[in-house]
């Protein structure tokens, strides 16, 4: 059985001229890069564009990766920056997630995912729905910490904040996520009764 190459080993292959090794890196991290981009853009098409642009930028800058952090931390900081620039260019509102337009987008997203009724009642569905209702910074920090399994220090590098600031923001984001989940689940219980 062949041992799977690490990110660093794949990067070394790419830098040595093996472009197909980059395809392996993309396959390994594309799903999470897309998820992170989706937290900001709220649109599958925009998230795909941001993720693709991020991988192109990472490829072009691969020789600048100094291995002072994990490759994923470096990549996710590129996704974060690319998403922020994309939003600035598009001039999307990232104010409160309580307006009707956002709920319409969430409903459209859920229908785009073609979730059946069993999947809609799953825990991950409600967690993701609640995360989608958070402010982009909160959603990013929650996503990086729980789904990306990044440390506070790594998240600080990705979003360009101090570690203590990230810690405080994570605490507050957890509280807001809990509130969103409680609201969603209360609504679900009311619909069942």
Quick synopsis:
It contains ten helices and no strands. It is an all-alpha fold and 193 residues long. The longest helix is centred in the C-terminal third of the chain and has 30 residues, at 163-192.
Task: Describe this structure as you would to a colleague.
By secondary structure, the protein is an all-alpha fold. Helix content is 75%, strand content 0%. It has ten helices and no strands. Helix 2 (20-41) crosses helix 3, helix 2 (20-41) packs across helix 8 (136-147) and helix 8 (136-147) packs across helix 10 (163-192). It is elongated and about 60 Å long.
Any chance you could write out the topology, listing elements then pairs?
Elements: H1 7-15, H2 20-41, H3 44-60, H4 71-90, H5 100-112, H6 117-120, H7 123-132, H8 136-147, H9 152-159, H10 163-192
């Amino acid at each position: 059985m062949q041992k799977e190459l690490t990110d660093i080993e794949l990067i070394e292959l790419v830098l040595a001229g093996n472009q197909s090794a980059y395809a392996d890196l993309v396959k390994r991290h594309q799903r999470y890069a897309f998820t992170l981009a989706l937290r900001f853009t709220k649109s599958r098409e925009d998230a795909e564009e941001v993720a693709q642009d991020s991988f192109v930028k990472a490829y072009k800058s691969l020789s600048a990766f100094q291995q002072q952090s994990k490759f994923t931390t470096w990549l996710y900081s590129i996704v974060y920056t690319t998403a922020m620039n994309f939003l600035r260019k598009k001039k999307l509102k990232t104010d409160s997630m309580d307006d009707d337009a956002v709920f319409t987008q969430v409903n459209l997203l859920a229908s785009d995912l073609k979730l059946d009724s069993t999947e809609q009642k799953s825990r991950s569905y409600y967690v993701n729905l609640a995360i989608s209702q958070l402010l982009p910074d909160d959603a990013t920090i929650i996503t990086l910490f729980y789904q990306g399994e990044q440390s506070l220090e790594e998240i600080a590098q990705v979003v360009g904040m101090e570690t203590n600031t990230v810690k405080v923001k994570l605490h507050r984001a957890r509280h807001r996520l809990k509130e969103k989940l409680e609201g969603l689940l209360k609504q679900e219980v009311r619909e069942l009764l």
